[in-house]
Each structure stands twice: as structure tokens, then as C-alpha cells.
User: Which sequence fits this backbone?
């Protein structure tokens, strides 16, 4: 029982979405009542299992958890938003909307309800409305980098790359050391044909996370595009020598990584090596 | 187009592995045959609207094809929303590019609701007059244009997925995170 609780705790901390694991470990704890031995953590487990149960379609388990939480915390907005999620999961989108609206009428700053409302609009197939709602939320909560990340994704769904890039810039101001955010920004820039800036961002990825394969591929893609293009008159542009050096570095590292014994399946290695040669 | 068991299995395993997000990939056929879709290669499960890794993947699949007497014949995707069977904007662009090189190319959207059933879970699209249009009545007696090589593929695949097969599938995103992942062949799955 201690192990299950620890795994659940780790998953709460990492925020990974592994509903099958959560339900497999959490359901016995809840059914047997052993969850209550976890004191204050018990309610976090109930909430965690409720959400995981919705993910895997176990409505009964979810309602059981929500009921326990309602009993313990009557009137709580946090629990009511869970009820809203349960309604969303069974397809009752309009009713879910009413739940979130009611919470926000009492407290317009309620973060959980605001966020659910954005995703509800998206689930209803109303992307513009979802974007507007999230923009409004971020006007107030501009340090919520997860909000900016979600907005970037909403824009990307609509292929609005410039707006998505802007969102990633906000994310990076708040989380400058996260190489995955630099990577996402780099790939958006590349998609916009901004190879110069994309290259800088891919380099930052590899700087923050040594031998990052995806970052190295990105460096090669940008360097080869820039080397093939006409020389830029912009003084701030990376010089031909530097481009060639970066391309060489990325090439060397990729060859070393793929070439290590047992590093990659034969088919992957052959394709990657040939790709490197022909870039 | 006739789909081999492998070409039916892999896209569904890909969709089942990532139920909370969109997935996409390509279909392969032998260079000489025109109508047998022999395999599928899963590509992405996140950032599907971004291009750099798509370019890398498509080039590497192409190189793999040339080395093995194959060619890219189609594109597949699955939406994160259960009932959504529309071909996404990004999907249309990718499929159109494949079509540009190979006019026989088609697209398939996975019918998520049919994954765990005995019914065929592929909804094919073809490019007609510059628009990607659904092919009605595919995989039925009324339309022999799209069929399965093995009529029990849906049932067998559903069973295999219930047994946890999708965990063993690797796509290009997985490969970029860990180059040991066998994304081009996926021996562990077939």
C-alpha cells in the first residue's frame, strides 16, 4: 500500500497522464478504504483517481470519488469543477458549461474553472471562442506558463504560427531553462521559414541538453537551408563559416550517436546515416 | 487499395497508444505493385503541425523505401476527439504533397469508435478536383476500391490491442527521444 501511494504521489508531482496506472493502483485503495490511512493525501488521491477514471471511461469509479470529496468538502469549487469534468466526459457539455459558469459567477478569478471552460469550448468545436477565453484569462494571469503553452497549441491547431510563436516567447520568458520549450519554439520558427532564429533556438536546445537528437537534427536542417540560400546581407546573420561549423558539429554528433554499437535498429541507422550524407 | 494485416494493425496501434492526442503516419506499397498496401510507418503524436521533423521523417522513410523496393502510397491520421473523422488541415497538406509525387496516393482517417470492434476502422479519402473527399461505402461489398487482405484483421487487431500491443509500437517521435526505437519496421509489433 505504501508503494502504491508513493507512485500516485510521484505521478501527481510529474503531472504525467497515466490514467491506467492511477486507476490500477488507486481503485483498490479506495474500494478497501485503505486510502483514508493517507490522512490529508487521501483527498488528493480521490481527486487524482476521479480524473484518471474519467480518462479511462470508468464513470462509476469517478462518481464514487467525487461523492467522497463532496461529502468531505461540501460546496467546494474545486470539487464542483470535478463534477463539471465528469459531465464533460459523459458528453453533457452544456451542463458542464453551467457548472463552470456558476463557479466563475461566484469567483471570476477561479483558475480551475476558467481553464476547464477554455477546454470545454475546444471540445465543443469552438476554437475561436476557446482562444478568446484563454487570451482573456492570460490578460490577468500572465505568469501562467502552462496557459501560454495551451494557447500556443490552440493557435497551432488553426495553423496560426505567428501567434503560437508569440505564446512560446512568453513561455520562455517564464521558463528559460526548459530545453523542450526552446525546441518547440525552434520548430515553430522553422515552420515559419525563419531558419536564422530557429537555428539559434535549436543550438540552445543542444546547449541545455547535450546530444539532444531532435535538436541536432534541427541544427542540420537549418544550417543546410541557410547554406543553400543566398548569402544574407544582414550583419547579424550567422556567417558561412559558423554555419558550416555548426553543420559539421551536428553531423559528427549524430553519426557518433547512431554509430555506437547497439544504439539503433539497423533500418533506423541506415536511413539516418544516408539522410546525414545527403543533406 | 488492399491493406495487408500489418498496414491495418500499425495505424490502429498508434492511435490506441496515444488516445489523448492526434497521431499520424504514412502507408507503403511495393514499387511494382499498384494496389497492395504492405506496411505503415507511424510518425508523430505531438506537434503534428510543425514541419522540421516531418521533413526529416519523410526523407528517411523515402530512403528506407528506396532501399527496400517500396514507395509511400498514402497518409493516415487519427483525431484526439472520438467522433472526429474529418481530415485535418495539416493532414490535407501532407497528403497533398504525397499525392503530388504519387497521384495514386490516398489518405485515411481512423474511425476511433471502431478501433475496438469487428468493423473496419479506416475512412479513406481521395483527392478529387483539388479537394480531399471521403470515399463512401469503402471496405464494403458496394465498393471494392478499398478492402482488407484479411477480412478478420479488425477482430484480430482489436484483440491484440486489448492485450496491450500498442505499448510496443514506436513512432518517429519516440525514435527522436530514444534512437533505439525501431520506428521504420516495428518488429516487436508484427
Assistant:
Amino acid at each position: 500500500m505504501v508503494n502504491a501511494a508513493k507512485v500516485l504521489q510521484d505521478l501527481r508531482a510529474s503531472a504525467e497522464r497515466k490514467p491506467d496506472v492511477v486507476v490500477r493502483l488507486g481503485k483498490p485503495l479506495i474500494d478497501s478504504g485503505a486510502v483514508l490511512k493517507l490522512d490529508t493525501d487521501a483527498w488528493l488521491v480521490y481527486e487524482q483517481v476521479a480524473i484518471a477514471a474519467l480518462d479511462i471511461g470508468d464513470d462509476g469509479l469517478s462518481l464514487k470519488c467525487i461523492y467522497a470529496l463532496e461529502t468531505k468538502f461540501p460546496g467546494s469549487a474545486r470539487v464542483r469543477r470535478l463534477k463539471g469534468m465528469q459531465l464533460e466526459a459523459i458528453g453533457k457539455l452544456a451542463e458542464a458549461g453551467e457548472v463552470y459558469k456558476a463557479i466563475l459567477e461566484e469567483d471570476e478569478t477561479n483558475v480551475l474553472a476558467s481553464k476547464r471552460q477554455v477546454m470545454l469550448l475546444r471540445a465543443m468545436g469552438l476554437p475561436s471562442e476557446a482562444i478568446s477565453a484563454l487570451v482573456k484569462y492570460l490578460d490577468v494571469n500572465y505568469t501562467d506558463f502552462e496557459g501560454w503553452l495551451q494557447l500556443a497549441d490552440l493557435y497551432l491547431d488553426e495553423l496560426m504560427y505567428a501567434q503560437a510563436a508569440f505564446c512560446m516567447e512568453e513561455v520562455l520568458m517564464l521558463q528559460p531553462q526548459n530545453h523542450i520549450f526552446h525546441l518547440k519554439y525552434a520548430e515553430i520558427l522553422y515552420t515559419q521559414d525563419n531558419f536564422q532564429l530557429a537555428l539559434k533556438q535549436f543550438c540552445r536546445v543542444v546547449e541545455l541538453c547535450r546530444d539532444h537528437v531532435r535538436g541536432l537534427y534541427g541544427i542540420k536542417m537549418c544550417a543546410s537551408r541557410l547554406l543553400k540560400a543566398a548569402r544574407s546581407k544582414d550583419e547579424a546573420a550567422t556567417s558561412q563559416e559558423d554555419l558550416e561549423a555548426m553543420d559539421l558539429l551536428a553531423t559528427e554528433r549524430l553519426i557518433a550517436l547512431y554509430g555506437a554499437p547497439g544504439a539503433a535498429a539497423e533500418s533506423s541507422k541506415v536511413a539516418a546515416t544516408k539522410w546525414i550524407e545527403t543533406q | 487499395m488492399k491493406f495487408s494485416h500489418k498496414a491495418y494493425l500499425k495505424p490502429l496501434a498508434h492511435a490506441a497508444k496515444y488516445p489523448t492526442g492526434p497521431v499520424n503516419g504514412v502507408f507503403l506499397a511495393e514499387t511494382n505493385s499498384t494496389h497492395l498496401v504492405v506496411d505503415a510507418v507511424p510518425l508523430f503524436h505531438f506537434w503534428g503541425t510543425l514541419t522540421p521533423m516531418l521533413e526529416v521523417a519523410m526523407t528517411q522513410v523515402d530512403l528506407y523505401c528506396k532501399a527496400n523496393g517500396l514507395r509511400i502510397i498514402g497518409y493516415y491520421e487519427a483525431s484526439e476527439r472520438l467522433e472526429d473523422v474529418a481530415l485535418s488541415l495539416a493532414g490535407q497538406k501532407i497528403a497533398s504533397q504525397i499525392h503530388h509525387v504519387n497521384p495514386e496516393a490516398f489518405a485515411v482517417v481512423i474511425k476511433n469508435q471502431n478501433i475496438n470492434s469487428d468493423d473496419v476502422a479506416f475512412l479513406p479519402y481521395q483527392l478529387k478536383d483539388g479537394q480531399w473527399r471521403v470515399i463512401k461505402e469503402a471496405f464494403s461489398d458496394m465498393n471494392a476500391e478499398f478492402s482488407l487482405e484479411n477480412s478478420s484483421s479488425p477482430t484480430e487487431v482489436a484483440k491484440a490491442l486489448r492485450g496491450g500491443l500498442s505499448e510496443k509500437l514506436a513512432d518517429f517521435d519516440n525514435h527522436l527521444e530514444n534512437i533505439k526505437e525501431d520506428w521504420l519496421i516495428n518488429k516487436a509489433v508484427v
Q: What stands out?
A: Chain A has 15 helices and no strands. Chain A touches chain B at residues 17, 55, 123, 156-157, 159, 184, 186-188, 190-191, 198, 213-214, 217-218, 221, 257-258, 262-265, 267-268, 270-272, 274-275, 278 (CB under 8 Å). Residues 92 and 121 of chain A are 13 Å apart (CA to CA). The longest helix of chain A spans residues 240-259.
